[in-house]
Amino acid sequence: MERAIDTQLEDLKKVILVMGGHVEKALAQVTAALLSRDVNLFADVHEIEKRINEDHVRVDNMCMNLLAKQGPVAKDLRLIISVLKINNDLERMGDQSVNISYSGKDYLGRKPVQQQLNDIQRMSECAGRMVKGSLDCFVRGDVEEAKKILLMDDEIDALKNKVFKDSIAHMKAHSDDVEASMDLILIARNLERLGDHATNIAEDVIFAFTGKDVRHGGKFG
Amino acid sequence: MERAIDTQLEDLKKVILVMGGHVEKALAQVTAALLSRDVNLFADVHEIEKRINEDHVRVDNMCMNLLAKQGPVAKDLRLIISVLKINNDLERMGDQSVNISYSGKDYLGRKPVQQQLNDIQRMSECAGRMVKGSLDCFVRGDVEEAKKILLMDDEIDALKNKVFKDSIAHMKAHSDDVEASMDLILIARNLERLGDHATNIAEDVIFAFTGKDVRHGGKFG
Questions:
Q1: Does B47 touch chain A if contact means CB atoms closer than 8 Å?
Q2: CA–CA separation, B131 and A110 (whole Å)
Q3: pLDDT in tens, B103-133
Q4: Which of B63, B71, B168 faces A71 most closely, judged by CB atoms?
Q5: Domain total in chain A
Q6: Is there a domain that residue A221 lies in?
Q7: What range defines the domain where residue A162 resides?
């Protein structure tokens, strides 16, 4: 027999997936703006972020309602607590996309420094895969795939280090490009944080479906 | 008559205060290391962060227990949900302090660029006041003071913008100092984030004690 709480948990998962879709779109949009040098594309990200923020408040309210009215325990409770955390991470990803749009707009207003854009694009693709992957794991309760997401964070960190190193070298040799290189460094930093938030989601998935806390170096496997 | 849940909520507040004390100490320590140019002081922050991470797991577990065993509703439920969020923000502040220690260690290994250190110090003091202030509000349920914390974030943002601007100007004129200036920019960014997390806590305090959601431009007052 299906319990009332099961339907509500399914609804919660659906809203999280929609919210995740908005985050993926925001990230794709700011990356496209940057690569195509089309500053108008940055405007859309603010509209998308508004929707992410509305989702954020809605998910919190749904969780509060479930906690107050259903008195969930054990795995249901773990799932709701995880959704509260995932909700926060998705909202912060929206913020990071908006931050990218600000640095991106500055960047497009300057003389182009293209060298690091390939790596930025790879970082964005990696972050996008991590967001999508972590939410797929969440919806399917796939703990093994969630562990793989944790490992993808190394790829994005390595790319960020490369963008930092190359940009600093470029700034030293071309003082006229200091601002543009700095914009790219800040964008790389935002993309790295986006990856961190996806990692948090993967950790929450592992906790929700196994009860194991893998944060702070807790072992999994 | 005192309810069992009241004692447990008081315990929760005490752990949050201890955790907040660790965060304040971590921030004070990395700032002292930077200003006194004593690289050894950075080592302590890792020990402090370990304790913050232990607190983080403990608070989550206490909240889960309360939710499962007491079935809290209304303001008790709001308080517990707020603690879950505050817990996350405090943990991230620990991460930011560790990030500062990494950039700080790099910085101390280079030829000094002192110009921005005054502003960094002011940022750190402001962030420290915000952390302490937001937790005081939380413990006392002081919504009016919490609103003042939200305004302090403007001060820290203005200082960050100044560090960015001055550092970029310095880098353009002194290519040998690009790395050291970049370290200070990253430290300023971390301190700004610390302020953001304190702002989140103040918003959670307002929600916990009034039920009003002031995030995403929601009005208060």
A1: no
A2: 37
A3: 999 999 999 898 899 999 999 999 999 999 9
A4: B71
A5: 1
A6: no
A7: 4-210
